[in-house]
């Protein structure tokens, strides 16, 4: 199930040293640098655990550590998120047993948390977070960058398509290359310290400082202290209700991109995609690049939601796009074997007699994202529901500062858009945080104003009108 030939990506070159992990005592070949869930998928293992009450099979869904579908017991430790935990030679993996082992090391309970100090703490290492860290560091600020994934880049590390926009906004460059460019910028700056595989679990006020509690590699507690925090935790996949929508083999679109484009693993042989926005259309093309058959794309709306250029490309390759259709049911014992879709009427009800059956082992849910705002809620930031921005989002001002002084936001956390706007917002947040701390001089205000104009230009197209309306609602709420 590993991809060895790809028109863009060279996985043979990317793969590191072979290691052996043990699943239920059986040896499985893996590669350093890949996650447990990815290695299990490469070995054909789709069922990762079972639900507690009804014992229904569970499989990978988000692949970014934001759902509970991939929890397993690793080396005796329960509830490990296998989608973001890297393999290690000799690692022992079992179905999840959510009880602490009896022989837990009591001395570990007495360990004091490590303290790390900086000026600005950035939570999230995707396009918004990386650009925020880079921009803040350019003013002379000491920046701490936290991300729970094993690598920086966020969604960029799985995006093989070329970006639109201007040259200054990486137009014509693939997302995977943009991630490399930003990583190099971070690595060469001595005033940025990155902590990977580190989950931020709380933001608190500690006197004059902000305190971010982080857990590194599941067992190390760290207290990050700074004067400002930029939250760029991105978003997570939405899903839709249909019968058996929890079967292994049903993934969020981003999880499929992670398996294919980051780790070089085929997620299945025959796919059905639900959602014809830009993500669903691009995913169809990427699946074809990985030699996965795409049976169809179904879209409940009367027309596609993505760019025409993306739709035209997949149609030329023989992929039908069925508008005014929805998925009714997934079928299979332990994993997906079939999908049943049907046409819907103007009241969104299935039309009897229009059912179509697709023999697939992979269903991709590409129906949109919702902002990850949990940390901001916990920190006391005002939250508002804004449909145009993807759901509940933090109220913030023009410079991305929330209603809690010293806490800023950027990227999909502030409202669902594209990676380009995430980077521009990250730049504004990074510079604004440094300005309001008195680290940056007034000359940086012009750079913020320039970036605001670039954002306005990028949002001037038809897809940006909705976002502009949403931002107006937010700015009104911040007054």
TrEMBL record:
Domain of life: Archaea
Keywords: Oxidoreductase
Molecular function terms from GO: 2 iron, 2 sulfur cluster binding; oxidoreductase activity
Pfam families (UniProt xref): Fer2_4 (PF13510), Pyr_redox_2 (PF07992)
SUPFAM superfamilies: 2Fe-2S ferredoxin-like, FAD/NAD(P)-binding domain
Domain (2Fe-2S ferredoxin-type) ranges: 17-99
InterPro entries assigned: 2Fe-2S-bd_N (IPR042204), 2Fe-2S_ferredoxin-like_sf (IPR036010), 2Fe-2S_ferredoxin-type (IPR001041), 2Fe2S_fd_BS (IPR006058), FAD/NAD-bd_sf (IPR036188), FAD/NAD-binding_dom (IPR023753), Metab_Enz_Cyan_OpOx_G3PDH (IPR051691)
PANTHER family, per database record: ANAEROBIC GLYCEROL-3-PHOSPHATE DEHYDROGENASE SUBUNIT B
The protein's name: FAD-dependent oxidoreductase
Organism (species): Pyrococcus horikoshii
